[in-house]
From TrEMBL:
The keyword Signal applies. Keywords: Signal. Residues 100-156 form the Chitin-binding type-2 domain. SUPFAM superfamilies: Invertebrate chitin-binding proteins. SMART domains: ChtBD2. This is Chitin-binding type-2 domain-containing protein. GO terms for molecular function: chitin binding. The keyword Cytoplasm does not apply. It comes from Culex quinquefasciatus (Southern house mosquito). InterPro entries: Chitin-bd_dom, Chitin-bd_dom_sf. GO terms for cellular component: extracellular region. It comes from the Eukaryota.
Length: 268
């Protein structure tokens, strides 16, 4: 007969092993997004190639893909032309299911509506790559990967009022702009959150409603979201620091210089 103490010890070890495994972060799987099948062969001048981009039609064929801008990020197909709109097409409604977003910056962003999805942005103002976490996992805003629901809560949309800016998730590196989706008396039920991220070392301040860079010493430091700008840190009389965001200047050819973190200055 196996001693009870040995059985109890085995159970404890197994539970500890499960808890440790649950803490491991895992990557998601990319989701290939497709809109309704649109064709240039039926006389259209332009078509929606997906929920956030459109293509021009020439000789019955589509040429290139043009992303909708951040002001009107959704592509809506018309009888003859595709247009960019404030509101998504019915099959692209983010309330119904997750879709690609127009990237506000480069980097990884959580989906503000579906906590088991996240976006990888390779270029600003371009469609994001959509990823889905494995079953039972949700996106972790701190590690920027997927973590088990047993140890990670689902981050829900914080939108409660129209035209407000509020933090998203516990990391303070993300925030959302809450925009009314359409005219309605129940505005709270019709808010669409637009996700943004702060630069590294610049957490979102709920009081000032802005990302504020935290200086640890004097000098010039890179803006992780903008290669053409940087943060200048200098010491105040009381010993604290002040951070100012600076932009790189244009050269003689009109090209904006890029900040070089190694030398701490803008280089053409």
């Amino acid at each position: 007969m196996i001693p009870i103490s040995l059985v109890s010890l085995t159970v404890v070890v197994l539970l500890q092993s499960i808890n440790v495994q649950a803490l491991y972060d895992v990557p998601g799987t990319r989701v290939i997004i497709s809109l309704m099948v649109n064709s240039c062969e039926d006389g259209k001048r332009s078509i929606c190639s997906n929920c956030t981009t459109f293509s021009l039609c020439l000789g019955g064929k589509s040429i290139g893909e043009i992303p909708c801008g951040s002001a009107t990020p959704h592509c809506v197909q018309g009888d003859v032309e595709a247009t960019c709109s404030n509101h998504p097409a019915s099959e692209c409604d983010v309330v119904e299911r997750p879709w690609s977003i127009t990237c506000p910056s480069v980097g990884v962003l959580p989906d503000p509506v579906h906590c088991d999805h996240y976006h990888n942005c390779l270029e600003r103002d371009s469609p994001s790559e959509l990823f889905q976490c494995p079953p039972g996992y949700v996106f972790n805003t701190v590690t920027q990967t997927c973590r088990s629901r047993s140890v990670q809560k689902c981050a829900e949309s914080p939108c409660r009022a129209a035209n407000t800016v509020v933090p998203f998730g516990p990391s303070h590196m993300y925030y959302v702009l809450c925009v009314p989706r359409k005219e309605s008396e129940t505005v709270e039920q019709q808010l669409e959150p637009y996700i943004f991220r702060c630069p590294e070392r610049a957490p979102f301040n709920e009081t000032s409603q802005a990302c504020e860079y935290r200086c640890v010493t004097q000098g010039n430091f890179a803006d992780s979201l903008d290669l053409n700008s940087y943060f200048q840190c200098y010491r105040k009389d009381d010993g604290g620091f002040v951070a100012l965001k600076k932009g790189c200047q244009k050269d003689g050819d009109g090209m904006v210089a890029k900040f070089n973190a190694t030398v701490g200055e803008c280089i053409p």
